[in-house]
Structures are given as C-alpha cells and as structure tokens.
Amino acid sequence: MSAYSTLEKKFRRMNALTEASGVLGWDMSTVMPSGGAEARMEQLAVLSGVCHEILTGPDVGDLFDEALEAKGELNGWQLANLREMQRIWRHATALEGDFVEAKIKACKRCEMVWRSARPEGNFAAVLPTLKEVLNLTQQEARIKSEIFDCNIYDALLDHYEPGGKSARIDAIFDDFSSFFPDFLQEVLEKQRSRPTPVMPDGPFPVAVQEKLGREMVQAVGFDFNHGRLDVSLHPFCGGVPDDVRITTRYDETDFMISLMGVLHETGHAMYERNLPPDWRLQPVGAARGMTMHESQSLIIEMQASRSPEFISYMASKAQAAFGSDGAAWSVENMRGIYNQVQPDFIRVDADEVTYPAHVILRYRLEKELISGNMQVEDLPQAWGDGLESLLGIRPPNDRLGCLQDIHWYDGAWGYFPTYTLGAMAAAQLFEAAKKASPEIPEALTRGDFSPLMAWLNVNVHNWGSFLSTDELLTRVTGHPLDPQIFKKHLKARYLDS
Amino acid sequence: MSAYSTLEKKFRRMNALTEASGVLGWDMSTVMPSGGAEARMEQLAVLSGVCHEILTGPDVGDLFDEALEAKGELNGWQLANLREMQRIWRHATALEGDFVEAKIKACKRCEMVWRSARPEGNFAAVLPTLKEVLNLTQQEARIKSEIFDCNIYDALLDHYEPGGKSARIDAIFDDFSSFFPDFLQEVLEKQRSRPTPVMPDGPFPVAVQEKLGREMVQAVGFDFNHGRLDVSLHPFCGGVPDDVRITTRYDETDFMISLMGVLHETGHAMYERNLPPDWRLQPVGAARGMTMHESQSLIIEMQASRSPEFISYMASKAQAAFGSDGAAWSVENMRGIYNQVQPDFIRVDADEVTYPAHVILRYRLEKELISGNMQVEDLPQAWGDGLESLLGIRPPNDRLGCLQDIHWYDGAWGYFPTYTLGAMAAAQLFEAAKKASPEIPEALTRGDFSPLMAWLNVNVHNWGSFLSTDELLTRVTGHPLDPQIFKKHLKARYLDS
Lengths: 497, 497
Description:
Chains A, B: Broad specificity carboxypetidase that releases amino acids sequentially from the C-terminus, including neutral, aromatic, polar and basic residues. Chains A, B: This is Metal-dependent carboxypeptidase. Chains A, B: It catalyses: Release of a C-terminal amino acid with broad specificity, except for -Pro. With 497 residues, chain A is mainly α. The mean pLDDT of chain A is 96. Chain A has a 3-stranded mixed sheet with strand order 1-3-2, with helices on both faces. Chain A is built from 20 helices and 3 strands. Chain A has 2 domains: 1-94; 152-497, Neurolysin, domain 3, CATH 1.10.1370. The first copy, chain A, is globular and about 70 Å long. Chain A has helices spanning 3-30, 37-55, 60-69, 76-94, 97-120, 123-148, 152-160, 166-192, 206-220, 255-273, 289-305, 308-322, 331-338, 355-371, 379-391, 417-436, 440-445, 450-459, 469-477, 483-494, and strands at residues 227-231, 237-240, 243-248. Chain A starts with a helix and ends with a helix.
C-alpha cells in the first residue's frame, strides 16, 4: 500500500471515531440524563486520546515524507487531501500530550466556574481560571506561530479558519467599523419613520411550531431519512453528514425565534449533508472552515429566509398553521418584525445590522488579550468602552457584558471573527447565486429553495476542503471575500426598501 | 506502574470505548434515521477494531505473566479482576484477526438475508449463508475448545456464561423435560376448570401506558437521572451502568405486553445500575454472564411482578390510570390473564411454563448442529419433531418455526440455555430473598420493591463478576443452581393456588 493510501486509511479510521464522538456529543446535549455525564466525559476523553494517538503515531511523519516524494502519482483531490491531512497533523503534533491535557482540564474547569459565574454576573469569580486558560492559550499560540511561521493570533485562527490572516480581518473590520455608526443611525431613523411592527397574538403551541419548522426545513431540502430535529438548551447542528442532527428550543410566546433558528441550523446541516460523498471521512471531504460554515447557515437564514420574498410565503404558512389572524400577519408587518434593528447587549439576540459590532468588539479584545497588550482584569472596562463606541450602549453588568459568551472560557480563542466573515461570504455568495439563477427570489415566494440549494451544492458544498475559502469564493463569485457586498446588502435591505 | 495497574488502565480504556459503542447501539435502535446506518456501521466497526487492538497488543501477554508473578501483592478483587481480564483476553487472542473479520461479515450477511427470509418463511433462502455461519462457528468452537481445554459447545457457551458446562445443562434440561409434559397437562386441566380470563376493554392510549410504565419502573427503583425509557422495535436494555436505557413498544389493544416488558428490562437495568461502583469499566465490575442477567430480569418480571401480591397492586393502579372499570379488573381475573398458559409456536410470546420447552428445543438442536451430528438442511424437520414432542404442537411453516429467532443467523450460538438457567436462578434467588426478608411479598402488595431490591443489591448486583455464577448462588442461597426450586415455584403458582 502506498504511503498516501496508508494515510487515507489512518484518517478514515480517525474520522470514524470523531464521528462517533459527534453522535455522543449530540446525545449529551439532547437526551442524556444528567447522571450519565461523568461516564460520557470519560468515553469522549478516551476517544479523543485514541484519535490523537492515531494521528501522532511514530510512523506518520515518514508517511508524509514518502507521500510527498511520490506526489506525482496523486490526482488533484488526493493532493488537496494530503495538504489537509498535513494541516491537521501539524496542529496535532505541535503540542506535547501533557500540555494538551493540561489545557483541556483548565478549559473544563474554567467553563464550569463560568456556568455559575455568568448568571450572577460575577466576573471576579472566573478571573483566576480564565487567566490560566489565557496563559495556556498564549503558550499554544506562541508554539504554533513558530511552527506555522505566522503571528500568534493567526496560529489560533488557523484552527477555525484555515489560512485565515488577522491583517486581512483587521482591514475588513476597520472598514466596516468606519461605515457602521452612521449607517446604524440612518437605519434607526428610517425605522422610526415606519409603523412599529406588532407581534401576532400567541400563544404558539410547541407542537404547531415543530410541525411548521419541519415543513420549512424540508422546503430547504433537509431529508429526515438522513437527519433529525430535536430540542436542546443551546441550538446546534451536530451528528455526521449522513445523519445530520439539528436542534432548536421553543418559546410559546414567539414562534419566530425557533423558526429562524431552525432555518439557520438547516443551512449548516445542508452543507454537511452535501459534502462530496466520495470523500467521506477524509480531511478534503470536510467542510471548509467556520467562515464557509457560517456563510451556509446565514445564506439560508439571513439572505434567503429574511428576504421579502420568503417572508411573504412564510407569513401565510405560519398564519394558517397557528389558525390566527389580524393585521399583524400582513407581509409588511412581518417584514418589520423580521428585519427589526435594535442595539442590544447580547450577541446571540442581535439583528443582522448590529451583529458585526459584537463580533468586532470580541475580535479586537481577544487580539489584545492574546498578545498580552491587555490584562484580563481590564476586560469588563474595555468591553463596556468598546460596546459604547460601537453601538452607543454600555452593559449595566458583566452578565450582559463579557460573561455572556462561552468561547473564551472554554478555550475557543480565534473563533469570533468567522461569524462576521461568514455573514459577508453569505452576501457575496447569494449575490452570485442570484446572478447565475435569477429565478431564486421568485422561487422563494413559493417557499422553494431548490434553485438556491442546487447552486450551493454545486458551487460550495461539493467542494469540501478542496479549495481555500478565498479560492472557493474567487472561483464561484469572481473575487475573494469582498466586504462591500455585505454593506450593499445591508443598505438595500435596511435603507432602500 | 505495576503490570497489574497497566492492565487495569488498558481495560478501563477499552471498556470506555465499549461503553461508547453501547450508546451508539442504543441510538441506532431508537432514534437514528435509516440513512445513518452505513456511517454508524463503520463507526462501530472501527471502535471494535480499536478495542481488539488494545486487548491483543504485543505487550499484553507479558503483562499477564508479570501480574501473575506478583499476584501476592493483589487483594481479592484485584485477583478476580485479573482472572476476568485473562478470560476476555483468551477469547480475544484465540482467533486470528482475519478469521474474526470473516465471521463478522458472514454473520452480518446472514442476518440481512434472514431479515427478508423470515416474514416469507423462506428457510431455503437463508440456508447457504446460515451454513457458512455455522461452519465458521464450528471452526471457532474447535479452536477455542483446544485452548480452553473443554468440549466444543462449552467453548461457545463460555462467551455468554463463563465457566458454563453443557454436561450440567444436559442434566438440568433432561430433568425438566421428564417433569414437563405431565405437569403441562395438569396445568392446562386446572386452567380449564377456571373461568376463562377476560381482557379489560381498551383502547389503552400510549401516553397513559407510558406514564404507568414510568411509575412502575420507578417503584422498582429505576432512576431517571441515570437512565431513560424509550420506544424501539425490539425491547432491550442498553446504555451504560450510569446511564442505563430501557426500551419498549406499545400496543393500544393490550397494555400488559408493554408493562411486563418494561418490568423485565428494568430487572436488567437495575443489575447494570447497581454493579459495584468502585469497579466501573473493569471486567470484575461487569455483570456475571447471561444466566445471572436473565435471572435479574425474571426475578422482577416473573417472580415479583406476576406474583399475586403485585398483581393486586398493579390491577388497581392500571384501572385508575386508564379510567376504566368492569369485572375484568378484578384481581382474580388479572391473575388469570397474567398467568395464563398456552402452548404456542413463538418463544418470545411464551408464558412462564412453556418457555423452557422452547429453550430446551433450541439448545438440543444447536448442540447437534455445532457437533456436526445434524445438517442445517434437516433443521426444519427436526424443529417440528422437537416442538411436537415437547409441546404437542407443530409449526405450520418456518416463520413460526426455525426462522423465528435471530440468534443463530447473527452468530449467537451457545446463548439459548441461559434464558432458562436464568429463570431457574431467579426462582432460587427469590426464595432465598423471601427467607431473608419475609416482608417482600407484603411490600409488593403496596408496589414496594425496596426490600427485594435491597437484598438483590447486596447479594447479587454488588458482586459484579467477583464470583462465578454457582459460587454466587451458593454464597447467597446455600447451594449451586438447583432446578427443583423452579419446578416447585411453577407447581405452587400454576397448580396449588
């Protein structure tokens, strides 16, 4: 067997175990009784240890050398697969086993403290263990930055957005922040000139919401022979490509939260489901980083499902489902609700316009923290200052401020920017999709996502990790990530219509 | 680290992966969409491969040698653990990897053919692949019988009932078969002399059945913080000791099938749940073979739940739950229904009296097949003859005959006798429990299982695999498995009351 084939076999094995962990993770968040947690943590820890052993076995380095020497025998997909394998391997071998274990433990400890500190807004309680997490994160960043020959932030970012560069993100986010304050004022002013949207009268029974959600995700193309929709505290998309599982939570006073949440997760799910089937369990068959992943959830949720075309369809379906009537169900009013802009403290509740401000704030703060330019003690003050300068509001406490997101506390440093990069990629892809398939908006008035999904399958999903994010965008839209298109989209939706 | 400690570490790791497989297996049978099957099979195959590698690593033999040399340093539990580790290791290393893989594939193929052959009663369709499975099973039995120095049937039996001997089973089953025909006639005659039991009027809504089932299993001691109750096509007890998951299926025309099924699985579940907590993930901490496991389901279902004391409690709870009334709910009538005896073709539908006949038939046939004294072609004829001589009925087709059970088709040869050995052990344990805690029957009239469960916890569950089945029975009841007690129980329940 060639060195390359041996590597394929190893990665297939490792990824089957990673898939097993994915299903166990879904189980833990949806159906596992609380008393099963300790045993589950051990199962997951052993699985992750076995994967690490497969990946860092003493023969793997030589296999890469041999495979690279014989790379003339490989086709394009195999070469791309080899490149992705190496990337994963470099991340895995960069750190000593003891260091990785210490970091996992510190993150778990910190996350646990955070879980009780957050509701109390008690940042002081989590400070010592957050410092420990940051310290280990900085060490990881320094080690990887030397090996990858990049700056320390990019060494962390690479884990979520392969090849991502903070210099580029700085430019994109600086551009957006200089555009944003005036734009927000214009949007709010325009909004004030319109009638205040009225919520339709509830309650909206969970069973009806679930039925409506199932209809909508099937309209997007979600196949219940290859997936599930369940309930969890924090909605997510999990499982594996051939059995992709999305979750939501229901609020009987407001059906839109769940509906839009389900459509968002369906975007993630369709990406996983439609990854190139011939490359299952191989690195090149995996999704292309978090920017592209977020672009797929946001193209379904923000670009398609909040478009005037789809809202008109959805409003009539929802009204019929809940057997309700009244002026609140008019398309104009529903658009007002779905596209309402309101600066708020909480990122996950933010609208499309103010969301990037939350992300930019976190990105700037985490860069300062990782570089050591800012101390963790100064975070609450810096958070308040930052939010005030971006959104004009200041959180009254840390629960609504720097304690709101789990990311830093469980070690996900370098993740935040992908949310907004994904929103920008979604706008760019949607524009290109409509150009290639002009019937997309009209189809959405009938709840028909198929022209959009067909285009996404061919142009995004089926590529897996064959191309880098920018190569993929360039191939499909003619140019790398272009934040101007997102701005154009925001202006069109919030000022011009 | 001592050799023994290294072995403990290896088994802990391996058993955590086995637990992961257990959860994935539960998922597959309860919630997995059909399209996830292929990916799941690969996940499970890789997990099983990794476990096999851990167990058969080149250093393991030496570790056993070293640990045995230093066994003076080990306490009783550690010595028992070492013995169990060796037993598992001997099974795992007896066969070459290629042979194991070939057998797994043949069994999977045969099971798939069986799934479509069974509804059609088409034994000819499954014959070629069943021959292949039997052939590989015979090879396995021969290889293991040499290594274990036992006869070939016992080499297979050992996998399900460690240390079990067919010579002993022959004697027990021969004794029962000479007792059985006259006894059955007496029971049927006595039954005819009584009013025919009348089923209470349904329908019995699934939601009410589920609520009632949950109340009943909680009465047994099942803790929903450490377990679940779900629906599956074939009821089972799965999951892991700290998150033990039982399943049932509901029939709206007959609530008793599900209720008794749930109580049966709860018996299995309580055994798993109460295994010695200090020995989690170690072989000595596991359940002591299928005879003891079945004894725990049957002591709850057959001994306790079908006792007149519990039936009187259950009848009033069920009547109240379904809001129904009428003479059918009288305790006399409910006892008549719960203890009705009726020779039938299907093992899983059989009553307590005729069930052993089904098991004895299968045991005798599989012994003949494994030894080569009988050819697979002759199975339908031999099955009909055997059932006729034991129960006086002959199946009209193979669907109701030799195609009904999955066991032989998926490779579980040597399993069947444990069902009836378990029923006998249950009778023996229940007698001892009542002697030690005379309040047990009276408590059951109040739906209170706690005196019985307290006794079982201390005397059975907490022992894990520390003792052999007969050692455990001797310790707790004064003598090894004694089939006379089961006969006494049957006479008391079906003739004397």
